[in-house]
Every structure is written in structure tokens, then in C-alpha cells.
From TrEMBL, chains A, B:
Residues 160-228 form the Aminotransferase class I/classII large domain. It comes from the Eukaryota. It comes from Chelonoidis abingdonii. This is alanine transaminase. The lineage of its organism: Eukaryota, Metazoa, Chordata, Craniata, Vertebrata. GO terms for molecular function: L-alanine:2-oxoglutarate aminotransferase activity; pyridoxal phosphate binding. It catalyses: L-alanine + 2-oxoglutarate = pyruvate + L-glutamate. Its cofactor is pyridoxal 5'-phosphate. CDD domains: AAT_like. The keyword Transferase applies. Its EC number is 2.6.1.2.
């Protein structure tokens, strides 16, 4: 029966205004495993520990995301903001940063056009060209979604298809679901260190053309969750041969072990092929600075992009200041140069050591396969799960690796993310774990996890 | 002719991948005047001044947005971040804030569930209830759009209608356009200090029912751009009588002159009527902290909202720390209490003085009508524009008040936002101007603007 709200109101009744049935159906399809059930349970367990509930562990270790500051594996800008009027307190901070901050204060001067500070935009101008958005500071978590918004159109078979790697970071699949675009999977090659294979790209493109219009190729490099940096040979050729564009990359400033950036390469290709190409930087932990860089975009579309970005607020000022330092690190002779180099080398060599340690320890465990960790801050080991455990998972309504991760959490307090949240080849199982904990803690986590895995295998064999 | 991309590729051709024709049509419909052509021109003029081009003014005054820090009318957290390792430098900041910062450091501890710091969420829990999202820190510029995403569904006559005030802040109309929802205008009553009139709400609702399904009522309070705080009588009754919900409010923590908040009232109504209701706080300038509070939301939809929020990153840590201070200001006896009260009173009395000054000076100018500025940081005067100027604007393809604002900028360097960007009754013209400049500068701006207006009237009469 149709309920007339006016009649209901007269009778003192109200229909439920917003329910699962009446809400936006595309939002319901969004999935985001990085902050899914395992983390929810981890937070509950922390609360139980606080209340004195007895557990087989004394601490929950959140290895699910790569927050370098929370893990205290990188020098962190304090979360203390200094409260003061105009002019900087001369006792604060390093000289180099103070000089820049003063510059920022002067370039702020009221009313940014929503694209971030003018001064900063000039300083981060890394790609020459007419594009006013090049290297504009951007809310990093918004950038992929903003680009997708521009690109999604059509209905039925002409609906925009978006090619994403499997495994992928679920920000992409969530964005695609929210916009009701068509997700087109291409599989990374786990046997070759998660390389991007051009034959596989062609296969995915060919098959997708039957039911959508593929227009976007997303490349995540260094890989998240895979932690690798190689782009694979032949990608350039693929991009030139009538494949979808723009390329959407997701690049960290520094690899952990392999100093390789896909960014330069994608721009070379884009300049050559005349495809629009976009480079997105990741968020800077806790301060939310980031930027996007575009080349070859139609100027009229560029205007639309500027408009869309400016409807949102520009990133927080401290994040923009940070980004300036990231894009223009101290040069030899500048006040902070020595400490910058010292810290940077310490961080990178620490990460390289932890990456090595992770691969070594996991490789000793029968049933675990762990590729080298080259970039990002994650390992993404493949685990065999016995048939009986798969059945048990099905009975409980979980993906097999979700089941494994929940069991791991309950027994060890270690919180990692199931591979199914990122996508994986049918019948393979993985988890993503950050390598960021202090090296001694990391060693303990890796050992506990390996021991638990062996026990799990035994229990379900 | 249909272009086959494979054939084109074989011939070495590429279709333009992304053009105005092939992009998302809904994005093209988005408009956002606050950062529109007037500001673009203002930035150009600044550059021309820097290059030594002679102008009838020496400085561009951006009175288009209300950035209290850029205008230096409020004590500002410095844009300098203090770089340090674990542990706080004891020489930094006020004792009260340092104590809190230490608490935040402890409650951060790795892996927030994307809804912001757990500790902070507990501390900002202002509304009792089972809702885990109550007072969750949120990206303030994302919150209205996130709520709209949940509520938009249906096609044709069942497409969700969203009631917004006219004039409105264009974040709402932009969000509606992007989601292809139906914008339903209700007009605020300028003759009664921009009051919200329940008869007008009923009219708008009745008419909208013919072509969409109105499900959302947005209330912006204190008004932006109108700068007023009164909600009008009868709103409560309207909400109870089968009108759309949730109520979406946009509330600043403190009014300028009238200490009235619509928030408490809307929650009272929502609790009574069982409608979901949402309260959004505005962004904190430069630090991007904010929160959303919901009541009466279906728990299943609540979960969907949590998921949608957690796909995005939580707000920057400094913004969350700031929010803690905003929600839990220093209490008598605490280290920072005295300075907090002193600063707060100074800021509020300064704003009240400027609000008064603005109304006084504009009221002396024939052709300008300026309501009292009660809240927010804006005045929104109505201006008469002579018929000849309206014609001239039409010839040049501008809305009449856009034409006025561009002329004002060229001759005086003062940058304000045309009323047409916020919506206004047919045949009326306005502009929005922040009242935040230092009082002596504000006096000069108001006088220059009034003089220019008198000259403009004379020129086109």
C-alpha cells in the first residue's frame, strides 16, 4: 500500500524517512575493508583489555594501516599547535622551517581560491605547462574520486569502465561503486613480484569492451597493498596503442628499497601519446597534505576540474606547509640540510631493514609466500588455507582470509587486513600488514604471526 | 560516424579521451560562486599590482570569504608545526594545551578507524545515545555531501528533492547538482531579517511534490550568506507535520550578537518527531576540523554512514586537537581559563562592533538595505541596480550583481561575492561581504564601497 505522508501525519504517524530500502543504492555497494570488521573487533578488544578482561595477549597491535607517526617509525610533526598572534615566536622550530613558515604567512593573506595557497602552488610547480592545476595542493583522499567524477558518464554499455589492478587499494573500488561506474579488473602477476603485465591489460580491456566503455586506467605505484614498485615492461606501448586514459597513479615520494618512480615514466608516455594523465600524491600522515598533477587535459575540462576542487575546501594549512617541505626539501648549505639528510637516511635504511626482515621471517614458514617489499610500507603475503578452514569460514559467512584474520586477532591481538578486501585471484588468500612497527616489535609480531599460522594450519588440516 | 578506437589506434589516431562533451554531465551543472569569476579576477589584479601595473588602488582587499586568521581578527594557531620526536618540548605552548596534546598522543596510538581518534570521539560525545557517529570528527566540507549521498535515490518524479533556503551557501546547490538530485528552493524573508517562514516552507514543499520526492530540509543557521540567526516561529510545527527530514543544520559555535543556536532546537524537534536529524559544525579555518552529530538514524543506515565516512580519511590531527578545545573549552581553575575568556570576549565584542558598524554605514547609503548582522561573519546587503546597468550587464553576459562586483573590484580593489551566486528573489540584487577586516580597515572598505556604489548609481541613472 502506498503511504501518503500527509494522511500519516494527520494520524500522528510518520513513515521511516531513511531506511536501508530507501537510501542511495550505490552507497550500499561501497566496500572498504581497510577499516572493516577486523578493525572494529580490534577496537572492541582494546576496550575489553582496558576493562581488565583476560586475553591471551596484553596489547592489540594494529598492523592494518601504515601510519608512520603512530608507529613512531618516523620523526613526526608534533600534534601540538602553537597558539600565538601575528609573528612567529623566535624560540620555535628549526630555522629553515621557520623561514618558510614566515613566507607562508605572507602568501596566505586572505581568500585562497579554494585551490590552496597561491604561493605554495607556485613553489610546487614541478611540471611546466599551461595547466593552472598542476601540482595544486589537494585533499589526497578526494583526488581519485574527483577525477573519477569527471570521467564517469553514459548508461548501459556506454557506462564508463575503470580499469584497476587486483589487488588494489579499496579507495578505488569504493569510488567506482559510489559513482555506479563499471569496475574492470586486471590482475597483477604475483609470481613476478606483482608486476603489471601488458598482455593482461589487453585481455581485461578486450573483455570489458563488451559491456562498458573503458576510459580510465588506474595504476597504483608503489603498489598498495602489494608493496612493489615495478611497472612491468610494455606498459608504455599499451598506453600508446589506443588504451583508455588518463593514467591514474598513486605514488609515494620515496621507495623503501627500489628508488623507482612510475611518475616520470607515465608523464613521458602521456606527453607522447597526448592522453591526459594524472599523478596523485598520497596523504601525509596526520596532516592531510597532498597534491595532484595533470597533463594533456582539455582546457575546458581543466576548468571543470578546478571548479570541482574549489567546491571543497583546500587542505589544512599545516598540510600545505608540509607539502612545500616535501616538494622542496632542504638544499646543501640550508640550515636544516644536515639533519634532513640524516633523518631521511635513517628512515629509509630502517624501512629497508624491516622489509628484508619481513620477507625473511615469512619465507621460513611453510604455506606462506612473501614477495620482496620494495615500496610503500606493506607486505602482502599469500597464505594457504586448509579446506576445512575454508568450509568453517563459509559456515560463519566470512571470506576465508577474513576468518583467518579474525582468529589471528582474537588469539594474538595482531590486527591485519584480509586480502579479500583488496581483491585477489579466486582461490588465493592473503593479508596486508604494515612493516612500520619498531624493529624489535616487528620481529615479535612476525614471529607470533608465523607461530599462529602454523597452529592454524595444524588445527584445520 | 561512430569512431572505433581500435581502428583509430591502428591508424595512429586517438580520439580525445576526455572533453566537455564526454565528461560527466552533472559535474558541468555544478556552480560555486564563492570562488568564481570575481575572485579569479582579484588574483589576476594582485599579480598585475605585483608587476607594477598602475591601478586606482594599491591593494586588493578580499572581503569575499570569512577567514578570521587571514584577516588577523582572531588569535590564530601558527602555521608553524613543531618538528620533534616523541615527547613534547616543555617550552612550547600553553600548559593547558600541552596537557591535552599529551593525552592525544596517547590516544592516537595507531590505526584510527577512519572516524578520527577514539579518545577525541569520546571527549566530544555531546549527545547521549547509542549512535557511534555522534560527534565524530569529520571533514567539514564533506559532511553535507556525505549525508546527501545517503539520501539521494529514485528516478523521475521519485527522485529525491532537497529543500534549501534562498539565499543559500552554494556548497548545498553544488552537492545537489553533482548528485543529480532535485533542488527545492524556499525563500527566506528579507523584510523580517531573513527569517525562515513556515508558510513559505509549506508552499515550497507542496509545489515540489508534483515533480520530485522531497526528503531533505536544509537549514543554515546562523545564515550564510545572510548573517542572521533567527529560525522563525513555526519551524518546529512544520517539522512535526509530515515534512521532509533529516534537518540539516550548519551552526557556528558562537553567534556574533545573538547567542542563539538552532542546534538545540532542531534536536528537540527531532527527538520528538523521530525524524533523523543531523548537525554539522563548520570547518575551523585553516585546520579543517569539524564534526557531525546525528540522532534518530536507522542503525542500518548509520552503519552505511560510518562506512562512507571511513572511506575518506579522518580530519588532520591538529584539526581534531583543535576541535577538542572547541568542544571542551577551558574551565574555571584550569591553566588557560583566564586567557581563553579574555580572548573570547575580545573577539566577540570586536565582531559585534564591526557588525554594528557595517549596518550603520550601509544604512546611510540610498539604495542599499542592510539587515542586522547577528551571526556568522557576513553582511548580505541588498542593492538597487539601475535599469541601464542591468541592460549593460545583460549585454556583457553577466548577472547584474556580478557586473556590479566586477566593476567594484576593478575600481577599488575590493573583492566581494555577488548575491546571484547564493540565489536571490527575482529582480533583487545583493553582495556578500565579510565583516572580519580590522575595524579601521573595515571602516575604509565600507566607505569606499559606499562611495563607489553612489558613483555607480549616478553613472547608470
Amino acid at each position: 500500500a502506498i503511504k501518503d505522508p500527509r494522511v500519516m501525519a494527520e494520524n500522528g504517524l510518520r513513515d521511516k524517512v531513511l531506511s536501508l530500502d530507501s537510501m542511495n543504492p550505490w552507497v550500499k555497494r561501497v566496500e572498504y575493508a581497510v577499516r572493516g570488521p577486523v578493525l572494529v573487533r580490534a577496537v572492541e578488544l582494546e576496550e575489553e583489555l582496558r576493562q581488565g578482561v583476560k586475553k591471551p595477549f596484553t596489547e592489540v597491535i594494529k598492523a592494518n594501516i601504515g601510519d608512520a607517526h603512530a608507529m613512531a617509525s618516523a620523526p613526526s610533526p608534533s600534534c601540538c599547535q602553537v597558539h600565538q598572534g601575528p609573528g612567529l615566536d623566535p624560540g620555535l622550530g628549526e630555522q629553515g622551517l621557520r623561514v618558510r613558515s614566515e613566507g607562508h604567512r605572507q602568501s596566505c593573506g586572505g581568500g585562497s581560491p579554494g585551490l590552496g595557497e597561491q604561493g605554495l602552488r607556485v613553489r610546487t610547480q614541478v611540471t611546466p605547462g599551461p595547466c593552472p592545476l598542476c601540482a595544486a595542493p589537494a585533499h589526497p583522499s578526494l583526488s581519485p574520486q574527483t577525477m573519477l567524477k569527471l570521467l564517469v558518464s553514459g548508461e548501459g554499455q556506454s557506462r564508463t569502465g575503470v580499469m584497476i589492478p587486483i589487488p588494489q587499494y579499496p579507495l578505488y573500488s569504493a569510488g567506482i561503486a559510489e559513482l555506479n561506474a563499471v569496475q574492470v579488473n586486471y590482475y597483477l602477476d604475483e609470481e613476478h613480484c606483482w608486476a603489471l603485465d601488458v598482455g593482461e591489460l589487453r585481455r581485461a580491456l578486450r573483455q570489458a569492451r563488451g559491456h562498458c566503455q573503458p576510459r580510465v586506467l588506474c595504476i597504483i605505484n608503489p603498489g598498495n597493498p602489494t608493496g612493489t614498485t615495478g611497472a612491468g615492461n610494455g606498459t608504455g606501448a599499451f598506453v600508446l596503442q589506443g588504451a583508455p586514459a588518463p593514467i591514474q597513479t598513486h605514488v609515494y615520494a620515496e621507495g623503501v628499497r627500489v628508488p623507482y618512480s612510475f611518475k616520470e615514466r607515465s608523464f613521458e608516455m602521456a606527453h607522447y601519446s597526448q592522453s591526459p594523465s594524472l599523478h596523485l600524491s598520497p596523504p601525509r600522515c596526520g596532516l592531510r597534505g597532498g597534491y595532484m598533477e595533470v597533463v594533456n587535459l582539455d582546457p575546458a575540462v581543466q576548468q571543470q576540474l578546478s571548479k570541482l576542487v574549489s567546491v571543497r575546501l583546500c587542505p589544512p594549512v599545516p598540510g600545505q606547509v608540509l607539502l612545500d617541505v616535501v616538494m622542496n626539501p632542504p638544499k646543501p648549505g640550508e640550515p636544516s640540510y644536515q639533519s634532513f639528510i640524516r633523518e631521511k637516511q635513517a628512515v629509509l635504511s630502517d624501512l629497508a631493514h624491516k622489509a628484508q626482515l619481513t620477507q625473511e621471517i615469512f619465507s621460513q614458514v611453510p604455506g606462506i609466500h612473501c614477495n620482496p617489499v620494495q615500496g610503500a610500507m606493506y607486505s602482502f603475503p599469500r597464505i594457504q588455507i586448509p579446506a576445512r578452514a575454508v568450509q568453517e569460514a563459509q559456515v560463519r559467512g566470512f571470506a576465508p582470509d577474513m576468518f583467518f584474520c579474525l582468529q589471528l586477532l582474537e588469539e594474538t591481538g595482531i590486527c591485519v587486513v584480509p586480502g579479500s578486501g583488496f581483491g585477489e585471484r579466486e582461490g588465493t588468500y592473503h593479508f596486508r600488514m604494515t612493516i612500520l612497527p619498531h624493529v624489535e616489535k616487528l620481529r615479535i609480531v612476525l614471529k607470533k604471526l608465523s607461530q599462529f599460522y602454523a597452529k592454524f594450519i595444524q588445527e584445520y588440516s
